Amino acid sequence: MRIGLIGTGRIGTFHAKALSRHARVGGLVLTDVDAERAGRLARAVGATVAPSVDEIFTWGVDAVVITSATSAHADLLTRAARAGLPAFCEKPIAADLPSTLRALRAVTAAGTPLQLGFMRRFDAGYTTAREAVRAGRLGRLHTVRAVTSDPAPPPAAYLPLSGGLFRDCLVHDFDMVRWVTGREVVEVYAAASDAGPALFREAGDVDTAAALLTLDDGTLATATATRCNGAGYDVRMELAGELDQLAVGLDDRTPITSAEPLGPPAATRPWTGFLERFAPAYEAELDAFVRFVLGERDNPCDGRQALEALRVAEACELSRRERRAVRLAEVPDLEPAA
């Protein structure tokens, strides 16, 4: 199997290295707007360099992996669909909902396979939590708490292109709330703050946000995120039911200190970032993509699943701006184009 990978930045480099080690991948073709960077990576992993993205669609690859800048995702997905190629795309499909819907319509019209990069679906802790909830081991679920905290702000140049904290960061938590519980979000109320570093205000973004989600069975979920958690990278989910409670992401590397005299000690080696924390999950999702393309398994996260998480993020952004509760029915869905 020969795969074309578009974008050799931080996540593209990780994916290229993982795919180069995969037993079912016989060749990699890499391209990037930074040709020198693509060349260095190609030499490191034994891949072929394409002069431009055009060659990815003409050199006979069997599938494409899109890890370019977010602004290019929708166009590349559309090109892959028109070329009849299966695609793996890092989230988000686009930084706004209309562009996302247009790209998904193109994929639907072409009938080509699309897997989105929501890597937490392959994390051992979240998988265990999903199984526990689905098996009823917690009893009736009444409360879910999701947390994502970055240890430091991203580069200032990234923020205007990211889509904002709800779409770029919390969208992972929204996907996990749906995936773990098996329920849909019907209403949100969200708030956010830009009281931290000035680069967020300058980009029109926020550094900290919180959302209250009401699920279709009455379960209440909170999701909070911040870009300014100096203790380390902290991603957790707590699920509370009538019979038991369960926590994801709580281990000896969780960057949190107990105030109790007999509480657990503080982490001596806290998580530093998402690539370290979720490295096994990233590898597992790429293995799933390869096996999905080969017809050996079902799609673990299709365009519809990604769209539903984005719709929650869009509802939260609308709620933040208008300071009101927002029903998910207010956010456009994948209806046919007019």
Walk me through the structure.
The chain has 338 residues and is of the alpha/beta class. It has two domains: 2-112, NAD(P)-binding Rossmann-like Domain (Rossmann fold, 3-Layer(aba) Sandwich), CATH 3.40.50; 121-274 and 308-327, 2-Layer Sandwich (Dihydrodipicolinate Reductase, domain 2). It is 38% helix and 21% strand. The protein is built from twelve helices and 13 strands. The protein has helices at residues 10-20, 35-45, 53-56, 70-82, 97-110, 124-134, 159-162, 165-181, 198-202, 274-277, 279-293, 303-322, and strands at 2-6, 27-31, 48-49, 63-66, 87-90, 114-117, 141-149, 185-193, 208-215, 220-226, 234-241, 245-248, 326-327. The strands form two sheets. Strands 12-11-7-10-9-8-13 form a seven-stranded mixed beta sheet. Helix 5 (97-110) packs antiparallel against helix 12, helix 6 (124-134) crosses helix 8 and helix 8 (165-181) packs across helix 12. The two termini are 38 Å apart. The mean pLDDT is 96.
